[in-house]
Amino acid sequence: MTRPSEHPPRPRSGVFFIFDLGGTLYRSETSFLPAVPEVFERYGLASPDRDDVISLVGEPLGRQNEPLEAHGLPKESLPLLEEAEFRLVRDAGELYAGVPETLACLRERGHTLVVCTNGQEVYARAILEPRCPSRPKP
Predict the structure, then answer these.
(1) pLDDT digits (tens, 9 = 90+) for 126-138
(2) What is the three-class DSSP state of 113?
(3) What is the domain-level CATH number for residue 13?
(4) pLDDT band at residue 98, thresholds of 50, 70 and 90?
(5) Are the beta carbons of 40 and 78 closer than 8 angstroms?
(6) Range of the domain at 17
(7) How many domains does the chain fold into?
(8) Is pTM, for the whole model, over 0.90?
């Protein structure tokens, strides 16, 4: 008797599934949302309201920075924000329920998976690689 992992991979079906990473596969609020107040706290500043921070989720990094700077966060603190978010991606980030299993099922059926993001590849890999058994490439 052979185990499922011993079967040769099925040929690709020619069907592509394209997913956005943040807000579709990944719960961005599990990393970015707590990173912002953490960094504001380091500078002794009041963090923007939760709704203001949520409105920045999905924006490219440059567009996230401007509103945070308008709330008093110094420009030189932005690397700290990136570090905090990356640490929270690694330690507390969550995919939506059922995502790893769904992606694995689609790949098992021979479909090609594509993940799009306006974030950096290092973040996409930090999110997907430890959480998805089939490890789709961003």
Answers:
(1) 999 998 865 444 5
(2) strand
(3) 3.40.50.1000
(4) very high
(5) no
(6) 1-28+94-138
(7) 2
(8) no
